[in-house]
């Protein structure tokens, strides 16, 4: 999976394996073996170099990109505004959320 992520990131930049190896200052053959899943356990030092060259974090190489979080839509924003306008404090809102979670878990 790591090799596949590196290859996908490399290709998304339009780079050859030779270009990435040069930018990351790692051996082309080693990088090729990682991408082809022959080398399954690359060193963290090599991953850091490749991540820096690709301008991503090592976490992206190890785990993949983070799932985008849902954006607040206008309805949610209106609910927050209404709660603020009615005088609900952040602490009261947190307590309500905790109570709701507890209630759902105890069913």
UniProtKB/TrEMBL annotation:
Entries under InterPro entries matching the protein: Cro/C1-type_HTH, Lambda_DNA-bd_dom_sf, SinR/SinI_dimer_dom, SinR/SinI_dimer_dom_sf, TransReg_Diox_bact_type
Q: Which PROSITE patterns match?
A: HTH_CROC1, SIN
Q: The Sin domain covers which part of the protein?
A: 63-101
SMART domains from the xrefs? Answer: HTH_XRE (SM00530)
Record carries keyword Secreted? no
Q: Which residues form the HTH cro/C1-type domain?
A: 6-61
Q: Which CDD domains match?
A: HTH_XRE
Q: Which UniProt keywords apply?
A: DNA-binding
Pfam families linked: HTH_3, SinI
* Keyword field contains DNA-binding: yes
What is the name of this protein?
Helix-turn-helix domain-containing protein
Q: From which source organism is this entry?
A: Paenibacillus hodogayensis
Q: What is the lineage of its organism?
A: Bacteria, Bacillati, Bacillota, Bacilli, Bacillales
């Amino acid at each position: 999976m790591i090799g596949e992520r590196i290859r996908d990131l490399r290709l998304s930049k339009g780079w050859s394996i030779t270009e990435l190896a040069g930018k990351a200052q790692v051996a082309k053959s080693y990088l090729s073996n990682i991408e082809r899943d022959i080398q399954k356990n690359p060193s963290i030092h090599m991953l850091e170099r490749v991540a820096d060259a690709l301008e991503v974090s090592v976490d992206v190489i190890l785990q993949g990109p983070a799932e985008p979080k849902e954006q607040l839509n206008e309805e949610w924003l209106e609910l927050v505004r209404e709660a603020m306008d009615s005088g609900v404090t952040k602490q009261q809102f947190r307590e309500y959320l905790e109570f709701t979670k507890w209630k759902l878990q105890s069913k």
